[in-house]
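Entry 14. Structure prediction run on the chain below.
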Amino acid sequence: MEIEKFILAVVTLDRHKVGGCGTPLFYAADKKEQDTIATYLARITSGVIHDLENGVYIIVRH
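Output returned:
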């Protein structure tokens, strides 16, 4: 059995919205930095960015 879809990373503006998930967390100082970090991580990991619209992005491999 192979896992095909999983979260590679989480990029957030608010440390209190995410924690203890076992996935790498990246904290951004502002929206621009969050966008940059998420974009670079998605390119590096061949993942897709999903905006949860609460200040949290997840990078997922489909």
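The chain has a mean pLDDT of 90.
Filed with the rest of this week's runs.
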